[in-house]
Write a structure and sequence with these properties.
Blueprint (H helix, E strand, L loop, with lengths): L29 E2 L11 H10 L12 H11 L6 E4 L1 H13 L5 E5 L5 H8 L3 E5 L8 H7 L4 E7 L11 H10 L5 E5 L16 H6 L3 E6 L12 E4 L2 H10 L7 H12 L1 H24 L11 E5 L3 H13 L2 E2 L1 E2 L8 E5 L3 H19 L1
Parallel strand pairs: 1-10, 3-4, 3-5, 5-6, 6-7
Antiparallel strand pairs: 2-8, 7-8, 9-12, 11-12
Helix pairs in contact: 1-9, 2-9, 3-4, 3-8, 5-6, 10-12, 11-12
Bound molecules: pyridoxal-5'-phosphate.
C-alpha cells in the first residue's frame, strides 16, 4: 500500500462536470450546454491572437498592465485594483486560497455555481450551502447561515443556472448584514447580459463602497473566449495585493493578454452580441412558453426551461440529443426538472425550439 497520501479533504472534492460537447452517433451537433457565445470571438480578437503567435518564444508581462488599463478605461475602474486570472475561476481560487483554510466556512447558495464548493474544499475550508427561494438567491438564508467561522460568501448575480438576479437593494442589504470579517464575492460572469437601459456594472459600485466586497468578471461568456481562459477581479487595493501573492507571475500568456484586450476594445462587436442574445433569448422563451415550458425571465445568455418533473426533462433531453442538440442537465444543481439551454444563434434557437415543440406534441399524442 502506498505511503503517499493527499492532504485531508482533497479526495472529497467532486470533479467539475463540464457541459457535454458530443452525442454518440451525431456528427454535427448544436452545442447549447456551456453558455458559450454562439457567434464566436470578435474578428479583431482572432486577428490579435494570430498577431501574437510569432512572439510566443517571449515570456509575457507579469503585471498585465495593458489589459488592466483597458479594463479600467472601458469600465471606469481603477486599473491598480484589477487582477487578471486564468478565467475568473482562477481569481475565485486566489480568493478562496488567500482568505480561507481548515475550520473556515464558505457560504454559497443552493443553485450556485458548482465551482464554489470545489474551491472551498481545495483551500481546506468547509462549504456551506444555503437554500434559495423559487430559484432566487435569498439574502435572509445567507445571513442566517453566517457564523464566527464564515470567511467568504459567493454570490452569482445574475445566477447560473437560474438566470435570475437579485436587485442592488438586496445586495446592499446583504452587505449591511454581513460582519466585517466576511468577504463577499460578487461573481458577475453574466453581467453583460442584464436587461435595462443603463449598462449593469456587475457590482463595481459595491466594491468601491465597501472594503469586504470583490467582483469577478470573465471573457468566457459575452466575449466568446471560453477557450482562451481569461477573467479578472476588482477589489480594494489591499485585497488585490494579497491575491497577487498567490498568483503565478506568468499565469496569462502573451497570446491570452493580447486577445482579451482586443476583444474588450471591440465595443461594436460586443453590442452586436448583446443585441443578438437579447433578441433570441426572448424569442426562445416565448416559443417554449407557447408549448407549455415555463422559464424565469432570463438576465443571462441562457434559459432555464422547466418541465413537469425530472422524468419529463430527461425525456426531452433524450429527444434533443437524438436531433444533435446538446443542452445542460441541472440535476446536479438541485433543479432536476429543468434543462439549461444556452441562447444560440438563430439556427441553434430554431433547432432547439422545434425539437422541444416536437417533444411536447409527441408526448401529448
Ligand atoms: C462561466 C462562469 C464563470 C466563468 O468562468 P471562467 O473561468 O471565467 O471561464 C464564472 N462564474 C460563473 C457562475 C459562470 O457561469
Amino acid at each position: 500500500m502506498t505511503q503517499i497520501t493527499p492532504q485531508p479533504g482533497i479526495m472529497e472534492i467532486a470533479l467539475y462536470q463540464a457541459g457535454k460537447s458530443h452525442v454518440a452517433g451525431q456528427e454535427r451537433v448544436i452545442k447549447l450546454s456551456a453558455n458559450e457565445n454562439p457567434l464566436g470571438p470578435s474578428p479583431k480578437a482572432i486577428a490579435a491572437a494570430q498577431a501574437a503567435a510569432p512572439d510566443l518564444h517571449r515570456y509575457p508581462t507579469t503585471d498585465h498592465a495593458s489589459l488592466r488599463a483597458a479594463i479600467g478605461d472601458v469600465h471606469g475602474l481603477d486599473a491598480d485594483r484589477v487582477i487578471c486570472g486564468v478565467g475568473s475561476d482562477e481569481v475565485l481560487q486566489f480568493i478562496a486560497q488567500s482568505y480561507t483554510g481548515p475550520g473556515d466556512e464558505v457560504i454559497y447558495t443552493e443553485h450556485g455555481f458548482s465551482m464554489y464548493p470545489i474551491l472551498a474544499r481545495q483551500a481546506g475550508a468547509t462549504p456551506v450551502c444555503v437554500p434559495e427561494t423559487e430559484r432566487r438567491v435569498d439574502v435572509d438564508y445567507i445571513l442566517n447561515a453566517v457564523t464566527e467561522r464564515t470567511r467568504l460568501v459567493f454570490l452569482t448575480n445574475p445566477g447560473n443556472p437560474t438566470s435570475t438576479m437579485i436587485s442592488d437593494a438586496e445586495v446592499a442589504r446583504l452587505i449591511e448584514g454581513l460582519p466585517q470579517h466576511v468577504l463577499l464575492v460578487i461573481d458577475g460572469a453574466y453581467a453583460e447580459f442584464v436587461r435595462g437601459d443603463v449598462p449593469f456594472n456587475g457590482g463595481a459600485a459595491f466594491v468601491d463602497a465597501h472594503p469586504n466586497v470583490i467582483m469577478t468578471r470573465t471573457f468566457s461568456k459575452v466575449y466568446g473566449l471560453g477557450g482562451l481562459r481569461v477573467g479578472w477581479g476588482y477589489a480594494q487595493r489591499e485585497i488585490i495585493d494579497v491575491l497577487n501573492r498567490v498568483r503565478q507571475p506568468f499565469n496569462l500568456s502573451n497570446l491570452s493578454l493580447a486577445t482579451a484586450e482586443a476583444a474588450l476594445l471591440d465595443r461594436d462587436y460586443l453590442a452586436h452580441c448583446q443585441q443578438e442574445n437579447a433578441k433570441w433569448r426572448d424569442w426562445l422563451a416565448a416559443e417554449l412558453a407557447a408549448v407549455g415550458v415555463a422559464s424565469d425571465e432570463s438576465q443571462t445568455n441562457f434559459i432555464l426551461a422547466r418541465f413537469a418533473d425530472q422524468a419529463e426533462a430527461d425525456a426531452c433531453d433524450a429527444v434533443l440529443q437524438s436531433r444533435g442538440v446538446i443542452v445542460r442537465k441541472v440535476a446536479g444543481y438541485g433543479i432536476p426538472e429543468a434543462l439549461r439551454i444556452t441562447v444560440g444563434d438563430e439556427e441553434g434557437c430554431r433547432a432547439v425550439a422545434a425539437a422541444i415543440k416536437a417533444f411536447k406534441e409527441g408526448a401529448r399524442a
